[in-house]
């Protein structure tokens, strides 16, 4: 789209941002509404295009993750161990159920009609939000994980669970009794984020040590030969690398390219197929805590929020930037240079 | 009298004519007158007519008789047929009767004979059946009515139906008889078993009812009276049996009690196993011969009375034993029962004034009462135990920590006792263990105490008795504890405030002079990393080392193969440690200090012990440059700064730098992980670039295996182990921090 003009600034900053660290943000699948969870115990709903705070929901503890159900409701994962459903229109919320420890991540599967949560209590739980309120009615199943769950991603009926100890479990939602695949992260440091490719063939996994691995579900040798890892979010100065954690990965819904955000405050856009970096946006004030493309891929929400990587300290204020995405920034380019053999 | 029609008539005619001629001749001779002659002829004619009339009459009579006979026969046949319930074989149809009467009769007669024979046969059958019926009926009702043929000889109904009916009746009667026989047999066998169990003579018993019954082969009476009598007898015997059984069971109970009381040896008990075994048996379960015989019961009675005597002689001993039991229960349930009653009782026994059995009963009653009370106290007691245990742990923790939180916070996972501390903390506090950083709350969760108080109050209200624990009222114990704890809390707060003040003083000092006194324990540990009091100008505090402990070990173990690229944060942490040391020793040489982090190998060589010690001792991970470096930009990573200034540092300390950090080495090490030493690992990242830049990636998946260098494999293992043990994500650290914040404020 030619109308999009490159901004010197990192994008439009949303008014009324959360007052503490942003744990996640997500665009709706139906509109430009943006759901934001934060350490200030709130879940906020913004209209990103109109820059309006549509609603705010306070929980009993820091909110570690949130996701949309439809445009009228969403779900949140909180450090007070509870999984909640939030009704935007009524401003109501109810508790879907609880874990034994803070709930780290949450996803809604349109395929299964279930909410999937991962917690530091080393379990994955599936919930049926249609059931009346109350754990005994909504809980579909509890699935033990080898370690605390750190990140979760869905595509189709696949669920990828990344936990502490660099475990990665791949489940099929239709048969959750045991993992379809049990893997170990290809990266040798703690997993920060895992996101499935939109085409459902694999997932990208980032670690605290400036590196992203591109993996494939198919266990055939031909498919596995395609997997690779690359370094990013590093700074090279005076012959030395400074390595930053890669906090966020977001796939572009149209082109399948993806953006990564690190503690260095940069957002990079990558073409995974051609193994190219497509774009690097100008530096944000502080660490990139979360990223999300809007449903048509024309907007990119960037949470610039200190992620506590160096403990408690003064830091730039938490902010949400919504930037228009120029096609050139995300569209895969024909190969310019001879590529390394894939 | 005219023309002869047949020979005899002709002959008769002839004879008559001849005779008449002869008569005419005679008359002529005689000369009779015509009148006489006419008269004589008239007479002759009259006499002839007379003879004819007589013959006709006779024939007529004969015909009537024949007809009568036929009719009679037919009637008889019809009667028999109807009696037999059969259709008459022959029905005469008069109009079709072609034959003469005699023919008719000759056809009827054999039929009649046949029917008569059949009738007799049928009648005999019926009579026979009736006789049998009568016999069985007599047997059942014990009457002696003989069968009278008259009654049977009712010929009106000899139909097959009647016979079948009678046969059915007979069948029924036979069945009934069989049933009765079986019943009698049952009764007899039951009687037999009863007699056996109770040691009675079966034959004798049965003969009383009916002598024939005792004969196993002989005729069995099946009359109602016999059955009734047998049933009564059985009932009577069963009553006796139950009576005896109860008696025996009473005896057995007593016996068991006595055994229990006196610890009777097993061998002695063995002899009465048959008795005690049946203690809870019901009537029908006791089948063993002689178990309920009079003799046996007498035998058991004798044993019981022997035991009773024995018990009396041992009464004092028993009372003492029971008392011990009572004491034990009281001790377990922390109840206090006044001992005086029992003491008195024992004295009374000794003096022989009181019936010992009474005393024993009293004590047993008391035991029962105490047991009941203990049951109602159980729930609260369990809570009390928990609380007391938690109190112990709390005491231990307090001792261990010595009110100095530094010690507790310092050596995470380093000290063995820490495990114990962690356990104690979780017991005391019931907080999720994953929150490692929340080690500070070592106080008993007030919920435990509150719940206990409310439970106890409810109990007291319900029972209207004070809840005593070893004689002390539990509520007062809890109150005392709460007060004590409150005092401790205040003391702790006071200490903390003091520390805070001290910390501020140090910070001020630091800001003023660029150095600070030994940080050992003067400064509040948890404040150190949290808001970096001294680092007014620095906005970042290095926690990287603690967060990524693997790096730390990297640098500890592998000097050569360590990917230096990972070590920025770690190094910063080491800088801190080194700084601690050097702060004390050479506070002025800040520049030199900075250099040390680059020259890490030599430093490690001589200070590895210090590193360990630091790891245990202090969480005072302080940013080294913060106090003085005004040039550090607030956003810049400290390491950047180091690198910015690296050149000058290197110039200042060329020798140390050379020892380890030749640039070429770093390059190769950086790529060790990817095994692509020639890759452009140092590719410059140009900000805001629209030109696609190749990713820095591994060529093959295998290249992702870390530390494949043989010289460092052991180090890798160590790294991974430690890594798993204390791995935490930023969010977990943050959550722990949030928790601790809310706790402090």
UniProtKB/TrEMBL annotation, chain A:
Keywords: Cell cycle, Cell division, Centromere, Chromosome, Chromosome partition, Kinetochore, Meiosis, Mitosis, Nucleus, Repeat, WD repeat. One of its GO terms (cellular component) is spindle. Gene3D superfamilies: YVTN repeat-like/Quinoprotein amine dehydrogenase. WD repeats lie at residues 96-128, 246-280. Residues 1-20 are annotated as: Disordered. It is found in: Chromosome, Centromere, Kinetochore; Cytoplasm, Cytoskeleton, Phragmoplast; Cytoplasm, Cytoskeleton, Spindle; Nucleus. Belongs to the WD repeat BUB3 family. The keyword Cell division applies. This is Mitotic checkpoint protein BUB3. It comes from the Eukaryota. GO terms for biological process: cell division; chromosome segregation; meiotic cell cycle. Its main location: nucleus.
TrEMBL record, chain B:
InterPro entries: MAP65_Ase1_PRC1 (IPR007145). Pfam families: MAP65_ASE1. Keywords: Coiled coil, Cytoplasm, Cytoskeleton, Microtubule. GO terms for molecular function: microtubule binding. GO terms for cellular component: cytoplasm; microtubule; spindle. Residues 512-540 are annotated as: Disordered. This is 65-kDa microtubule-associated protein 3. It comes from Hibiscus syriacus (Rose of Sharon). Its main location: cytoplasm. Belongs to the MAP65/ASE1 family. It is found in: Cytoplasm, Cytoskeleton. Residues 49-76, 112-187 form a coiled coil. One of its GO terms (biological process) is microtubule cytoskeleton organization. The keyword Coiled coil applies.
């Amino acid at each position: 789209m030619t109308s999009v003009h490159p901004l010197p600034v990192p994008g439009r900053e949303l008014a009324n941002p959360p007052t503490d660290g942003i744990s996640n943000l997500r665009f709706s699948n139906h509109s430009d509404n943006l759901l934001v969870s934060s350490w200030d115990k709130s879940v906020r709903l913004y209209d990103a295009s109109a820059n309006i705070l549509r609603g705010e929901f306070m929980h009993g503890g820091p909110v570690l993750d949130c996701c949309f159900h439809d445009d009228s409701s969403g779900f949140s994962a909180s450090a007070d161990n509870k999984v909640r459903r939030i009704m935007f229109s009524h401003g109501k919320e109810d508790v879907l159920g609880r874990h034994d420890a803070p709930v780290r991540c949450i996803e809604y599967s349109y395929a299964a009609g279930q909410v999937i949560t991962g917690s530091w209590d080393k379990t994955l739980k599936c919930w049926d939000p249609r059931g009346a309120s109350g754990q005994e009615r909504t809980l579909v199943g509890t699935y033990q994980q080898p370690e605390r769950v750190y990140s979760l991603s869905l595509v189709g009926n696949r669920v990828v669970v990344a936990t502490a100890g660099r475990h990665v479990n791949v489940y099929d939602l239709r048969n959750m009794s045991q993992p379809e695949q049990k893997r170990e992260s290809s990266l040798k440091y703690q997993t920060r984020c895992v996101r499935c490719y939109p085409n459902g063939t694999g997932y990208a996994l980032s670690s605290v040590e400036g590196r992203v691995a591109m993996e494939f579900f198919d266990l055939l040798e031909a498919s596995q030969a395609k997997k690779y890892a690359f370094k990013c979010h590093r700074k090279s100065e005076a012959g030395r690398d400074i390595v930053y954690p890669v906090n966020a990965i977001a796939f572009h819904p149209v082109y399948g390219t993806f953006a990564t955000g690190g503690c260095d405050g940069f957002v990079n856009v990558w073409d995974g197929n051609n193994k190219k970096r497509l774009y690097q946006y100008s530096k944000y004030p502080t660490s990139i805590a979360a990223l999300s493309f809007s449903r048509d891929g024309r907007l990119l929400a960037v949470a610039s929020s200190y992620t506590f990587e160096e403990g408690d300290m003064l830091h730039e204020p938490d902010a949400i930037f919504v930037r228009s995405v120029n096609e050139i920034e995300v569209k895969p380019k024909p190969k310019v240079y001879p590529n390394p053999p894939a | 009298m005219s023309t002869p029609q047949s020979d005899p008539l002709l002959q008769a005619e002839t004879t008559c004519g001849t005779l008449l001629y002869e008569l005419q001749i005679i008359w002529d001779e005689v000369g009779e007158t015509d009148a006489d002659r006419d008269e004589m002829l008239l007479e002759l004619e009259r006499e002839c007519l007379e003879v004819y009339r007589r013959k006709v009459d006779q024939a007529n009579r004969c015909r009537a008789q024949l007809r009568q006979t036929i009719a009679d026969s037919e009637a008889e046949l019809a009667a028999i047929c109807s009696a037999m319930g059969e259709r008459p074989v022959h029905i005469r149809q008069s109009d079709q009767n072609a034959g003469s009467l005699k023919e008719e009769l000759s056809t009827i007669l054999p039929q009649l004979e046949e029917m008569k024979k059949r009738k007799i046969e049928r009648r005999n059958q019926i009579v026979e059946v009736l006789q049998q019926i009568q016999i069985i009926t007599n047997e059942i009702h014990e009457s002696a009515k003989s069968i009278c043929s008259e009654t049977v000889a009712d010929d009106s109904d000899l139909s097959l139906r009647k016979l079948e009916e009678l046969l059915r009746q007979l069948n029924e009667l036979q069945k009934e008889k069989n049933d009765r026989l079986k019943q009698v047999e049952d009764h007899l066998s039951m009687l037999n078993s009863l007699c056996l169990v109770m040691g009675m003579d079966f034959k004798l018993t049965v003969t009383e009812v009916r002598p024939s019954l005792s004969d196993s082969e002989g005729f069995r009476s099946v009359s109602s009276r016999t059955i009734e009598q047998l049933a009564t007898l059985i009932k009577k015997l069963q009553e006796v049996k139950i009576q005896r059984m109860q008696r025996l069971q009473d005896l057995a109970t007593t016996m068991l009690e006595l055994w229990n009381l006196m610890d009777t040896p097993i061998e002695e008990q063995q002899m009465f196993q048959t008795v005690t075994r049946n203690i809870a048996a019901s009537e029908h379960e006791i089948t063993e011969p002689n178990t309920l015989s009079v003799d046996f019961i007498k035998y058991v009675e004798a044993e019981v009375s022997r035991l009773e005597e024995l018990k009396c002689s041992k009464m004092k001993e028993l009372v003492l034993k029971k008392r011990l039991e009572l004491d034990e229960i009281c001790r377990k349930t922390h109840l206090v029962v006044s001992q005086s009653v029992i003491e008195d009782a024992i004295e009374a026994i000794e003096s022989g004034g009181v019936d010992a059995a009474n005393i024993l009963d009293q004590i047993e009653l008391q035991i029962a009462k105490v047991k009941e009370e203990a049951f109602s106290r159980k729930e609260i007691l369990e809570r009390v135990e928990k609380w007391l245990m938690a109190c112990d742990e709390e005491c231990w923790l307090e001792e261990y920590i010595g009110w100095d939180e530094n010690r507790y916070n310092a050596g995470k996972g380093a000290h063995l006792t820490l495990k114990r501390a962690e356990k104690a903390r979780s017991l005391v506090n019931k907080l999720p263990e994953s929150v490692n950083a929340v080690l500070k709350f070592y106080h008993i969760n007030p919920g435990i105490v509150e719940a206990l108080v409310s439970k106890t109050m409810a109990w007291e209200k319900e029972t209207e008795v004070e809840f005593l624990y070893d004689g002390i009222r539990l509520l007062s114990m809890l109150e005392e504890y709460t007060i004590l704890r409150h005092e401790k809390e205040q003391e702790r707060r006071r200490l903390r405030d003091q520390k805070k003040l001290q910390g501020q003083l140090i910070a001020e000092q630091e800001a003023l002079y660029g150095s600070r006194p030994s940080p050992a324990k003067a400064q509040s540990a948890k404040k150190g990393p949290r808001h970096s009091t001294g680092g007014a100008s620095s906005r970042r505090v290095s926690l990287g080392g603690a967060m990524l402990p693997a790096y730390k070990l990297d640098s500890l173990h592998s000097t050569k193969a360590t990917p230096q690229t990972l070590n920025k944060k770690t190094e910063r942490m080491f800088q801190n440690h080194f700084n601690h040391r050097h702060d004390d020793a050479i506070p002025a040489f800040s520049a030199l200090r900075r250099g040390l982090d680059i020259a890490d190998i030599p430093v490690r060589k001589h200070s590895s012990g210090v590193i360990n010690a630091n790891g245990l001792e202090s969480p005072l991970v302080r940013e080294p440059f913060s106090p003085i470096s005004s040039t550090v930009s607030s956003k810049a990573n400290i390491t950047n700064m180091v690198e910015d200034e690296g050149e000058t540092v290197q110039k200042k300390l060329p020798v140390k730098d050379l020892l380890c950090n030749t640039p070429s080495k770093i390059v190769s090490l950086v790529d060790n992980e990817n095994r692509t030493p020639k890759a452009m690992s140092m590719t410059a990242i140009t900000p805001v670039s629209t030109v696609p830049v190749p990713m820095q990636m591994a060529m093959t998946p295998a290249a992702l295996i870390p530390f494949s260098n043989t010289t460092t494999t052991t180090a890798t293992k160590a790294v991974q182990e430690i890594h798993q043990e204390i791995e935490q994500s930023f969010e977990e650290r943050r959550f722990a921090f949030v928790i601790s914040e809310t706790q402090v404020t």
